[in-house]
Amino acid sequence: MLATGESCDLAALLLGKEGELTVFMGLWHQETFLVRNRAFADGIWTLYGVILVGWSSGLPVLECTDETSTIHKQPRDIAAYQSLNEVCAGISGMSVAAKALSMRPGLCLDKSDLACAVLRRNGLEAVQGDLNNRQDRIAFHKAVSGAASLLVAGFPCQPFSMQGDRAGMQDIRSNTLLQVLRLAWHLQAPGLVVLECVAAVQDFPEAMQAIQQLAHKLDYSFEHVVLELADQWPCKRKRWWGVLLPKLKCPLGLSNWPLSTAHPCIRDVIPEWPCWPTEQILDLAWTQQETEMYESDQFGSDCRRYDANGVAPTALHSYGCALRQLTAGQLGAAEQHLHGP
């Protein structure tokens, strides 16, 4: 319950006028309220920072101040499905893929300066920002408010990964998923919302329920599928993909992609194995301890060697060895993550 003097952010549908006040219906809770000190056109609006100042005829009265931002939702048309904006962009795999499919990449947002620099060098428009920062979310919304488009995000996998702590929504990093969903709601998801994470995320009901709740509030359908890159390419990478979209007469019906009959291997992509100076090769060679641990069944069945006639293991965030340059306490943590759950 909002107290007098407190502010809130909400998406609302304009219902009409009542004297100098504008009548809105909040879309999340379906509540009616009044807004003063701002003129509005018909349609759906996102109101950032409106303040409860009192009541009139049993309805709450919210006031717009100089700090209030109001953004009008753009109509959805075919163009909304031909362009996209990306958050948690990283090096922006989805925007690069969209460009290859003749779609129009829009704005990319990432917390990392380095990632944004890479995005710009690859010809994409990028802005540094943190989804956990409300002002950064508002700035992003303003920047993309000119036209409807898709919203895509690969949210942090560490809370759900088989080789992580698997704390799920109790892990502070999972809050980024909630902020992606919050942004999608305030944008009123004019096109699709496409989400990506590790396959294990579907084992966490709280994460799935949060996404399903957004779909329900938007009156969207929610479908998801796990795709394995090795079905088409000589590198393992199993990823969960979720799609929220306006309800259709027939379900979208996401399905696994076909298994390649060619069974490509690393040699098909890298026909000649590169050579490095002997000193560097010896420095990179596994120690006896590393060999024993990486080949031990107690740490799972993952293949941690490259075989030119086989498929590469999943590319991780870092190829550094988890057992080197660590304190004793950190070594214990590294062993724990080799185990998985």
Could you characterize what this model shows?
With 341 residues, the chain is an alpha/beta fold. It folds into three domains: 7-72, Nucleic acid-binding proteins (OB fold (Dihydrolipoamide Acetyltransferase, E2P), Beta Barrel), CATH 2.40.50.140; 78-246, Vaccinia Virus protein VP39 (Rossmann fold), CATH 3.40.50; 267-339, no CATH class. The chain is 25% helix and 26% strand. It has nine helices and 13 strands. The strands form two sheets. It has a seven-stranded mixed β-sheet with strand order 9-8-7-10-11-13-12, sandwiched between helices. A five-stranded mixed β-barrel has the order 1-2-3-5-4. Helix 4 (175-187) packs parallel to helix 5 (205-218). The protein starts with 6 loop residues before the first strand and ends with a helix. Residues 326-333 have low confidence and may be disordered.
In brief, what are we looking at here?
The chain is of the alpha/beta class. 25% of the residues lie in helices and 26% in strands. The protein has helices spanning 93-100, 113-121, 134-144, 175-187, 205-218, 266-269, 278-284, 288-294, 328-339; strands at residues 7-18, 21-26, 32-36, 44-56, 59-63, 69-72, 83-87, 104-110, 125-128, 150-154, 193-198, 220-228, 238-246.
